[in-house]
Amino acid sequence: MIDINPAEHLKRSTRIVDLVPGLKHSGAYWIGPCPFCGGVDRFNVKAADDGDLWVCRQCAPGKYHDAIDFLMRRDGKTFAEVLGQT
């Protein structure tokens, strides 16, 4: 049995598409309104082997972010708080 650290477990078990209302499936992506800046069609989520990844072309451009980044931003928590280590 392979032991997965808490961060990896959280990334793999958190489905961002379940946390963001209004996303529409389009090919390999889910696209819709950004829960952070409110942009209508600039937020997208893609499934990856190690968990969902997201990007907003307006408020988080440049690279895809993981579920931990999403939860930190949504809840205003630190990495340790999101993992329940505080």
What key phrases describe this protein's structure?
86 residues; alpha+beta; 5-stranded antiparallel beta sheet; 4 helices; 5 strands; 26% strand
Helix- and strand-based class? alpha+beta
Helix content: 25-40%
Mean pLDDT value: 92
Give me the count of strands. Answer: 5
Coarse shape = globular
How much of the sequence lies in strands comes to 25-35%
Largest sheet: 5 strands, antiparallel
Strand order of the biggest β-sheet:
1-2-3-4-5
* Rounded radius of gyration (Å): 13 Å
Report the order of strands and helices: HHEEEEEHH
**Low-pLDDT residue spans:** none
Contiguous helical run count: 4
Distance linking N and C termini: 28 Å
What would you say this structure looks like, in words?
With 86 residues, the protein is an alpha+beta fold. It is 29% helix and 26% strand. The protein has helices spanning 6-13, 16-19, 67-75, 79-82; strands at residues 24-26, 29-32, 43-46, 53-56, 60-66. A 5-stranded antiparallel beta sheet has the order 1-2-3-4-5. β1 (24-26) and β2 (29-32) form a beta hairpin. It is globular and about 35 Å long. The mean pLDDT is 92.
